[in-house]
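for the writeup, i need someone to sanity check this before i put it in the appendix. the sequnce is what the collaborator sent (i think, or maybe the updated version? ugh). structure was predicted straight from it, no edits. if anything looks off just tell me and ill rerun, i have time this weekend
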Amino acid sequence: MQLCSFKINNNDQHSFGLIREDGIIDAGKYVDYSDLKAVLTAGALAEISALSDKPADYQADEITFLPVIENPGKILCVGMNYSEKRKEFGETNPAPTLFVRFADTLSAHNTPLQKPASSEQFDYEGELAVIIGKNAHQVPASEALQYVAGYSCFMDATVRDMQFTWFTAGKNWPATGGFGPSMTTTDEIPDPQQLDIKTFLNDQQVQHDSTANMIHTVQDIIAYVTCFTPLAPGDVIITGSPGGVGKSRTPQLFMFPGDHISVAISKIGTLAHTIA
């Protein structure tokens, strides 16, 4: 099941629904939940799945996508989680590298990412996003995937000229975190370590790897994070970027207004943005 959050064109009404080949079913008009986060909090994914035989309400060009989870309580990000990326940055610390993103940095599928005017090093990082489906605290790795609702694409655009030892300053400019277009539920992705991930800048492939090559797996990341902080439905974990980022290339390759950036992950889809 693929779920998205959206607003109807020419209407500020927010809703959520199921994506099918023939269009989008507006689940919000059938169930009494305000958004996907509320659905997850209520443990009501089965109610949404039961709507799959309803007729489609909208085509993709009739809606504007919103971030899959519009206002996550927590967005925790893992850095240096692929071997090639670690080599590019000379990372040798075996512990997970964690930093935070704020919900007000999120940007939806087909809406622009905003390059700060002060930056000449606006970099791309295509990543797998994990969306938490149940309250989780001190969860063992062997049980961690039971707490996942689904997976999405993320473009962790980075202001490199503001990213120092403390990553947060380079990661939290407005409209720099692309999230979407949808969430694929776990019944369609039983093993998140078997996904192909690619990033394209102006249709040129600039990143390609498999989640099988993550240093820290999704279940290990959840166990590590929940050992010190509880996670709630709708919280998001961004699992790290493959190698090939612009900062590490010769010559370096960054994003500028008018560029097109996308990240494609197997079984999930393609998240696309222009740079403004």
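Residues 43 and 115 are 37 Å apart (CA to CA). The radius of gyration is 18 Å.
thx in advance!!
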